[in-house]
Amino acid sequence: MNLHGVKAIYLFEMARTWRTLMQSIASPVISTSLYFVVFGSAIGSRMVEIDGISYGAFIIPGLIMLMLLNESISNASFGIYMPKFTGTIYEVLSAPISPLEIVAGYVGAAASKSIILGLLILATSRLFVDFSIAHPVAMIGFLALTAVTFSLFGFIIGVWADGFEKLQIIPMMIVTPLTFLGGTFYSVNMLPPVWQTVTLFNPVVYLVSGFRWSFYGVADVHLAVSLGMTLVFMLVCVGLITWIFKTGYRLRT
Amino acid sequence: MSDIIAIDGLSKTYESGFTALRDVNLHIRKGEIFALLGPNGAGKTTLISIVCGIVNPGPGTVLVDGCDIRRDYRAARSRIGLVPQELSTDAFETVWATVNFSRGLFGKPADPAYVEKVLRDLSLWDKRKDKIMALSGGMKRRVMIAKALAHEPAILFLDEPTAGVDVELRRDMWNLVRGLRERGVTIILTTHYIEEAEEMADRVGVISGGEIILVEHTRTLMEKLGRKELRLQLAAPLEAIPAGLSDLNLVLEGDGHELVYGFDARHDQADVAGLLRRLGEQGIEFRDLRTRESSLEDIFVDLVHNRRTGD
């Protein structure tokens, strides 16, 4: 096991975060705070409670999840794409390091950043809304599981992308719409029956629902289903990454 | 001297269908400086990239210090340092950070004293806190070498290390290469500056069309395939080679004012003495004479040309 190698990649990626503190940390925190101001305080004050939870508090898990998905994908895809773009990937490929260790370094760093951001946003939201966390251990667990899963997904996008445009396509065109339509700002139960059924095909619903359960003990879908769906998506990503390293897809010719 | 790299029957065909290597057999000896020469597209970089793990190998075996690059890739790669042709660097990192990153990536614990030595050897110590983007091209090239040496490799691949660098850096680089060889590091280099290979390399390999067409000691190669030339400036022009000298390898140039005598580098100067005596007997006088020995570059060009034309 090349632990020094994993550590080198991890610290290298984290160093980029500290170097670009404004872009990496401050920007997502500020933009999520704006959501709280607009949806939580301004509009939320005129909304009725959902499942006995004030609207401002209700959207907290969804907003954290919105940021978590985007940042996990963005951090991990950028992390592996940049060495490909600059050509420094030769060093990683020629190092005595296994695919698992490479992924642990890049995905570990991307997930760490997302988790730090998630916790920062959680702390920031406290400034705007009063809330409590019913299952803090489960909340951290969901946060970590989602961050790792979507960092794996981001790693796949970073390997697949052959231009900066492609790095943005999937987060912008698929993930963000799915997150907005995945119960971030509303309960699935508020939708007409037909749309409730359609919504269940959106994987983000399960993430938001599970995460919201850890806060308030209420969920749109059963906790086990949320957890199961997240794990299934994670396994799909692991399978794809295994295939990437086995074939050398867009990494080794 | 034992082999540190043993390549046997290695072929490589890319997905595009292009065959870059054909049944390559090449053994590099421990501690030597080996120059791999070949025209553009000959397969040099593919060969190096396969040994280093950047390109998937095709059929055949590659052993690095006895370790198979597929089965025992960790052990094989940990012995190798690579300086690629392209200046691929992390622009926003400092010199110190990027060299330490390379050391860690190759599984070595931090050793600030060793990294300091590498940076001092490469005249980079004063630049250690600078971001790479602020360095000149030559300095970036030094950083690439420092990164390759950061994990104390037993084998160093230098792919066109002096391409586009100034004279001073080139001299420093070769001094460094000599120093590394003295410490037992095996060096494999590709270069377009064939005179450098002639001066530096213990052995030379020539690759063309994906095949190794020759591996030889540099000195032996020069002796075997090198040619000498004697050029005589004639006092009076000749219309043709006199019949009495037709058995010699003579050519008239410069409208009959210059007589060129080509002979094998292995032959001794007696041939020249014999020619001069026979010229005197024929009443041919000359005003000046000079000799020229073919360089490794001439030999290389001949070899590749003959290969292409099927001679």
UniProtKB/TrEMBL annotation, chain B:
The keyword Nucleotide-binding applies. SUPFAM superfamilies: P-loop containing nucleoside triphosphate hydrolases. Residues 5-234 form the ABC transporter domain. One of its GO terms (molecular function) is ATP binding. It comes from the Bacteria. Keywords: ATP-binding, Nucleotide-binding, Transport. This is ABC transporter ATP-binding protein. It comes from Alloalcanivorax marinus.
